[in-house]
What does this fold into?
Amino acid sequence: MADFDYDLFVIGAGSGGVRAARLAALGGARVAVAEEYRVGGTCVVRGCIPKKFMVYAAEFAQAFKTARGYGWTIGETSFDWPAFLRAKDIEIARLSGIYVRNLENAGAELIHSRAELVDAHTIRLVGQDRTVTADTVLIATGGWPTLPPGVPGIEHAITSNEAFHLPELPRRVLVVGGGYIAVEFAGIFNGLGVETTLLYRGPNILRGFDDDVRTHLAGELERRGITVILGCQHERLERTETGVVSHLSSGHSVETDQVMFATGRAPNTAGLGLEAAGVTLNAAGAVAVDKFSRTSVANIWAVGDVTDRINLTPVAIREAVAFVETAFRDNPQSFDHQHVASAVFSQPPVGSVGLTEAEARHGGRRVDVYKSVFRPMKGTFYGGEERTLMKLVVEQASGRILGCHVVGPDAPEIIQMAAIPIRMGVTKAQWDATCAVHPTAAEELVTMREPWIPAGLSQGG
Ligand code: NDP
It folds into this structure.
């Protein structure tokens, strides 16, 4: 066997890369992980974690309103953005430090450098003027926000990356896109008191989610004061003395202080030397892998967003675990990308697992739909108008629950638990045999007895 410097070289110290590096090192492999920026990757540094802190901060707007409804006297409230940013950055630094320590404790070597492949076994450490060799290479470089090409004035817009560090909170913001990041940031800005507009090119936000979820959430966003503009996109952006003007395909223009594009993310593959190493990309520009996360080159593997399968932190981690089992423990494992639950931390949030109603009906499968839209008890007390949606999609023939969709407070927490029995193939009868926990919102999920009959359709349609 050739003599390599390392058994495993990981490029990218995000969720997937760090997990793989740690597990392989703990198993006795000689491991190095290269990171050109901060350890922790998108999730810790400029994604899930700082985003959730912003969501927490923004949720106080609703909490103050609720508190008043419950008899509290709330004086004048104000939000100190710089103070929030300082606290957020301290916490992110702490979490990044934990990742570093975990790597060190596992015996993996952390190299603060950009790494590029020279060939399948040789890695150049940019800036350190040296190369190293490795038997196995793992690409875990994640993704990066993209701006749509060909939009004049796009340089006046920011992405989520910059939104985490804005020197001051804008008074007015336009968020572009209808995906996870767009609806989450629209909720954040709105909650923090920013006059918020959400602009999406399609007929309804959150394409790919259940249609009831999409409609319900759009309504709730508007109820909370977000202006939602659908079916429309930018012709151009223009900076003026008073802000940034978005000229839209509808012929209208909207002036705001900040325009944030959340129009998707692209895999970080540029300049990595993948071509030199012979690694094939797929049509979307992501690293093409088989179900074991192995690329077109036998000793090079890839996990996480750079492979553009399901771009979620826990998925990258599970792909990394399966990779280590396969490549280092002689125990071939592939992560099952079915039934991955996800949450959108909009306000209110969304939790979803399994098939949408449309997916379930696809191909003529007969399904029953159970649906409940109600005002949660915490809100009814003070006359709050917010509504929660709970929905189950059930296969008629087997009685199995194919999908569960929730929009409302605690939806992410609810869906985490619902995902377990649904992945195990629970039937509606078994689900309903579970006694309710009262008084909760989630009890509605186990007490929906009658299938919902769409207008104009007979039962079972
Ligand atoms: P998404 O793919 O979710 O959404 C991108 C949005 O931008 C879509 O609404 C898309 O519209 C729109 N869009 C794309 N191109 C253009 C264009 N040229 N002009 C106008 N609109 C455009 O990407 P995000 O950036 O929101 O998130 C990336 C991924 O990160 C997510 O898919 C998810 O996997 C992950 N993520 C997960 C989170 C969570 O778990 N809570 C939070 C944040 C991110 P259309 O639908 O018409 O294509």
Summary: The first strand starts at residue 6 and ends at 11. The chain has a mean pLDDT of 96. Residues 148, 177-182, 184, 200-202, 207, 233, 262-265, 311-312, 342-345 surround NDP (CB under 6 Å). Residues 81-106 form the longest helix (26 residues).
